[in-house]
Design brief:
It contains three helices and nine strands. By secondary structure, it is α+β, with helices and mostly antiparallel strands. It has a single domain, classed as 2,3-Dihydroxybiphenyl 1,2-Dioxygenase, domain 1 (Roll), CATH 3.10.180.10. The longest helix has 11 residues. It is globular.
Length: 134
């Protein structure tokens, strides 16, 4: 079911500072910040030759990633995103096998403009998984 690794997301408290570090210190190509209102985050993408890094920071006080900073005061790796050919097929296969999706089992549009779903970390060895349609 899994395709290529799309990105690794890192939760950061200061997205401007983190962007500067990747752009100016490490020499990476860094996108402009983009508010993802439906997901409650602001994101920046760092383009690498073989994948991307997504920097995420809370957008507003009710951001779903705010709790992440309670356990991880300095931020850290938040989730891993894999591509799938068909998100609806992935949902059917996962729910048939009793895996839980975060939310209402309906995909949302992610930061790349493509359908995404998130899978509970408890089902995947402590890792929050995002699946994104190719």
């Amino acid at each position: 079911m899994l395709g290529r690794l799309n990105h690794i997301a890192i939760a950061v408290k200061d997205i401007k500072s983190a962007s500067y570090t990747y752009r100016e210190i490490l020499g990476a190509k860094v996108s402009e910040p983009s508010d993802q209102i439906e997901h409650g985050v602001t994101v920046v993408f760092i383009e690498l030759p073989n994948t991307k890094i997504e920097l995420i920071t809370p957008l507003g006080e009710n951001s779903p990633i705010s709790n992440f900073f309670i356990k991880n005061k300095n931020g850290g790796i938040h989730h891993i995103c894999y591509e799938v050919k068909n998100i609806e097929t992935a949902i059917i296969n996962l729910t048939k096998k009793k895996y839980k999706l975060i939310g209402d089992n309906n995909p949302k549009i992610g930061a790349h403009g493509k359908p995404v779903i998130f899978l509970y970390p408890s089902d995947f060895y402590g890792t929050l998984i995002e699946l994104q349609e190719e």
